[in-house]
Amino acid sequence: MGKIKKLDQHTTDLIAAGEVIERAASVVKELVENSIDAKATRINIKLIEAGLSEITVTDNGEGMDEKDAKLAVKPHSTSKIKNEKDLFRIQTLGFRGEALPSIVSVSNFKLKTSQDGVRGSAYAMKAGTLVSESVAACPRGTEITVKNLFFNTPARLQNLQPTSVELSYTLDYLTKIAMAHPEIAFKAINNERVVLQTFGSGRLLEVISNIYKTETAKNLIDIYENNGYFILHGFISKLHVTRSSRNNITVIVNERVVKNTRLVSAIVEGYKERLMFGRYPIAVLNIGVDPSLVDVNIHPAKLEVRFSNEDELLDMVRNSVDNALSRSNLVVDLDESMEQTGVWDSETKQEEVVHEESKFVSLSEQSFPTIQPVETIIKPEPPVPTPAPVLKESFEQQQYTLIEGDVSTRPTEPKFALPKLAYIGQLQGTYLLASDAENFYLVDQHAAAERVNYETYISELQKNEETTYQLLVPLAVNFSLAEAALVVAKIPDFIRRGLLIEEFGSGSFLVREVPIWIPKGREKEFIEEIITQAINDKKTERFQLLDSLAKSLACKKAVKANDYLNNDEVAALLSDLGKCKNPYTCPHGRPVIVKFSYYEIEKWFKRVV
Ligand SMILES: Nc1ncnc2c1ncn2[C@@H]1O[C@H](COP(=O)(O)OP(=O)(O)OP(=O)(O)O)[C@@H](O)[C@H]1O
Ligand SMILES: [Mg+2]
């Protein structure tokens, strides 16, 4: 008895419609989700050229009878909902009856399915037209093959990315859906190479271990929270297991992988100040909620969801992450550090120590008085009279002036050299107070340090020939499988830039040589940033790429607000700032220095009118 029905026009109109198949990964996603909805316990995904040539998804699910097999590729035909009412209680991953018709219309498509594992039906279509059909013996379940994706839609074909990028999209999805369904055994093969395998044991930690390696799985903290509306469960990483992007935070809602930046941010916010700047955890968070309290019908790709009381959920996520971390012993002992980096632990240990030392200010200096004596006079080259200030409109009503040079982030010759500054002291561990004959100045120390670092890095990065140094012990850096696919494709680029890197398997890479400008002892941090930028940055123009890398490195290395600086450090910072081509804005365009003229100050005190 057939299960698939065509939806009525009214229900169809209520479904968020749009382009559902944009790339190979969308085909894999839709086919795999159909297999999950068909209660498969084993799903195999076979790709050729990352799916651009061929995708085959085979499951051992409930299969379809002959009539349904034909109906499955008809628009708005689904077995998952019946009418408008069901749209507000979606219990399956699919519900629109749109995926298969969209796929068949842009590919060569073959389907083979059986409900009893004895008799099955099979057919082939080309761009939506039936080309052959047969009745054949086949195992229980469904197998769908999609070849020559977008062969008849040149615009979409052109939009496809290189295979490494397409593979990365697919692996990103597959690793996440595998974590959402630990009860299903997934096996993905690309060009005959196994790229992902899980075993369907039902244990999330085991799946995480398959995907991120055992060392990572051992350093996770479990989360469980139930407030009657939402059930949260999953794992978050301890503080020393971090990555330089948010890509390793997986959010799952009722077993559906979703994209929700607010939830991802809530997880990160739950870590409060415990994480180092620019570092993000690995996390897998399952959210269970009554289907009537969550709307999945808001985006054609079914990746976005809307909750009835999202703010409450966000608070709950933040608090449970915070509580889980508070109740855990987060002290990293030697063993954990060894597990993280395997044989390279001594390097990491050393790194941590050097890292602490290389901070701008040591902890003991935090007791420094906020205002420090005038001692340092900075002499920028060449000394020129204070420039006529440029008044910014938004600041016009206020009685101070931004000092402006060229506000573009591309380093250029400044319009004005930095004035001669006599250092007065530090305010709130954040601003440097300074003066000259006519004005009083506030310098944002973080913005100043960022500008100095940015100009150093951009000039180093722009040099064509990289001088390198060899690491005594190779450094291991780890990425998710999706990221690793992109890293592999960029290895020749990295080598050209002086980063000697080689694949080590399961998302790990070994770095043997690094560019000379990378600070000693902070290699891992910088390498991870360089690689993350290269694989995540969609910018292809060389300057833009280097520019964004330099900005991000500059920000990482810069002294932060609330760091107390001693006089020597201030002198060095102001002197370096004086040498910058554009000392007036940080690389992100924020002002570095603000000026108050004595005349204005005298007006405040009504000494002049
Ligand atoms: N692997 C499968 N095993 C069993 N039935 C399947 C399989 N794939 C598709 N079907 C049947 O075909 C129907 C149409 O699939 P299709 O993916 O086009 O739509 P859907 O899953 O209902 O909704 P959506 O468009 O949101 O994915 C499904 O409702 C289901 O009944
Ligand atoms: Mg579907």
What do you see in this structure?
A hairpin with a 4-residue loop joins strand 5 and strand 6 (119-126). The radius of gyration is 29 Å and the shape is elongated. 33% of the residues lie in helices and 24% in strands. The protein starts with a strand and ends in a 5-residue tail after the last helix. The longest helix is centred in the N-terminal third of the chain and has 18 residues, at 163-180. The strands form seven sheets. It has an eight-stranded mixed sheet, with helices on one face. Strands 20-22-23-24-28-21 form a six-stranded antiparallel sheet. It has a five-stranded mixed sheet with strand order 11-12-17-14-15, sandwiched between helices. It has four domains: 5-202, 2-Layer Sandwich (Heat Shock Protein 90), CATH 3.30.565.10; 219-331, Ribosomal Protein S5, domain 2 (2-Layer Sandwich); 362-448 and 561-604, MutL, C-terminal domain, dimerisation subdomain (formyl-coa transferase, domain 3, 2-Layer Sandwich); 457-557, Ribosomal Protein S8, Chain: A, domain 1, CATH 3.30.1370. Helix 2 packs parallel to helix 6, helix 6 runs antiparallel to helix 14 and helix 11 packs across helix 12 (345-358). It is an alpha+beta fold and 609 residues long. The structure holds adenosine-5'-triphosphate and magnesium ion. Adenosine-5'-triphosphate binds at residues 3-4, 30, 34-35, 38, 59, 61-64, 72, 77-80, 94-100, 142.
Provide the domain count.
Answer: 4
Bound small molecules, by name, code or SMILES, are: adenosine-5'-triphosphate, magnesium ion
Summarize the main sheet: 8 strands, mixed
Spatial extent as radius of gyration: 29 Å
CATH architectural group of the largest domain: 2-Layer Sandwich
SS element count, helices: 18
State which percent range the strand residues make up: 15-25%
The count of strands amounts to: 28
Estimate the helix proportion, in percent: 25-40%
What is the overall shape? elongated
Q: What distance lies between the first and last C-alpha atoms, to the nearest angstrom?
A: 93 Å
Poorly predicted parts: 332-400, 404-416
**Which structural class do the helices and strands define?**
alpha+beta
What is the averaged pLDDT score? 81
